[in-house]
């Protein structure tokens, strides 16, 4: 996927797969749920009503299925090649074929970088989702979420 990067700041989708997870701050505008943790800091536990509020991000996701939606893969406003979607399609297919057979792929040129994928199995889709979620490409962080089979079939009737 490096050949598609025009910024020079990309890393391979597979680089750093062994890296440990890093907690990210909440995204502005994203739904959040409030959780209050009891303090473990000495002294704070002695103050009545003292607590440490922790905001965690709630991501609305479908349960695992053979269908994935990749977001933030490209910005159509900055693409200059009219067939950029074909390059992205081929690159994503090549990367995702490491996890199983890709039955269908569609790069939606009129979105904020959406790439729709359907695999031959849930296991393959789960492997791809795990590998692609949070990866950086062309200076953008990829979001990989599952779609229900029904949603996918409504968008792409066979």
From TrEMBL:
Q: What is this protein called?
A: RRM domain-containing protein
InterPro entries, A to Z: Nucleotide-bd_a/b_plait_sf, RBD_domain_sf, RBM39_linker, RBM39_SF, RRM_dom
Give residue ranges for domain RRM.
Answer: 67-145
Q: Give the organism, scientific name.
A: Aegilops tauschii subsp. strangulata
Which one GO biological process term can you cite for this protein?
A: mRNA processing
* GO cellular component terms given for this protein: nucleus
Question: Which UniProt keyword terms apply here?
Answer: Phosphoprotein, Repeat, RNA-binding
Question: Which Gene Ontology MF annotations are present?
Answer: RNA binding
**Chain segments annotated as transmembrane:** none
List, alphabetically, the Pfam families matched: RBM39linker, RRM_1
Would the keyword RNA-binding turn up in this protein's UniProt record?
yes
